[in-house]
C-alpha cells in the first residue's frame, strides 16, 4: 500500500501540514490518524504551526498574528472567521475521506462565513476528485465557525482552504 502525503494550507498559505514530520524553528502540532496495520501507535496525519484543537480565542498572540497575516486588510480589532472547535473539525474528516478516495492534487475551496458563524456558500476552485470536493463541502457546511469581527461587530468574511494531497 502506497503511503500518501498530505499538505494542507488554510487561510491562503497560512497553514502547511505534511504527513512526514516538518523541520521547523517554530512549534509543531500534530493531527493524529489511524495506526498503521499491526500497530497501536497512531500515525501523524498532519503537522502544523497551529494547534488543531484550539479555537481562535484560545490561540496565543503570535498564533493569532499568523492567522491574521493571511488576510490583506484586517484592522487591529478585526478577526477572521475560524472553526469554533479548531481546525481539526474541518481537516480530519477531509483527510480521512481521501484515504478511501485516494486522490492526488489540490483541493481549493472558499467558504463564505456569515455574521452568525454559518457557511452560506462554498466555491470550489480546484479539486482532484468530485467525491473529495463534495465531502469537503459537507464538512464545511456542518462546521460551526466563530464569525469574523469587523470593528468589534460580527461580519461576513471568507475562510479559504487549500489541501494538497500527494
TrEMBL record:
Against SUPFAM superfamilies, the record matches this protein to: TolA/TonB C-terminal domain
Q: Where is the signal peptide?
A: 1-22
* This protein's UniProt keywords: Signal
Q: Does the keyword Signal apply?
A: yes
Q: What is this protein called?
A: TonB C-terminal domain-containing protein
Q: Could you tell me which species this protein originates from? A: Arenicella chitinivorans
Amino acid at each position: 500500500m502506497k503511503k500518501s502525503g498530505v499538505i494542507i494550507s488554510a487561510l491562503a498559505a497560512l497553514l502547511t501540514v505534511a504527513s512526514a514530520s516538518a523541520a521547523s524553528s517554530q512549534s509543531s502540532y500534530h493531527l493524529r490518524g489511524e495506526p498503521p496495520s499491526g500497530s497501536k501507535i497512531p500515525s501523524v496525519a498532519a503537522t502544523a504551526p497551529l494547534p488543531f484543537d484550539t479555537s481562535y480565542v484560545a490561540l496565543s498572540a503570535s498564533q493569532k498574528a499568523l492567522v491574521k497575516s493571511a488576510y490583506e486588510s484586517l484592522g487591529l480589532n478585526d478577526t477572521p472567521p475560524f472553526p469554533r472547535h479548531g481546525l481539526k473539525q474541518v481537516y480530519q474528516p477531509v483527510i480521512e475521506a481521501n484515504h478511501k478516495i485516494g486522490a492526488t492534487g489540490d483541493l481549493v475551496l472558499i467558504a463564505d462565513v456569515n455574521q452568525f458563524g454559518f457557511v452560506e456558500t462554498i466555491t470550489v476552485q480546484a479539486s482532484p476528485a468530485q467525491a473529495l470536493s463534495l465531502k469537503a463541502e459537507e464538512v464545511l457546511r456542518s462546521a460551526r465557525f466563530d464569525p469574523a469581527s469587523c470593528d468589534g461587530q460580527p461580519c461576513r468574511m471568507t475562510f479559504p482552504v487549500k489541501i494538497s494531497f500527494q
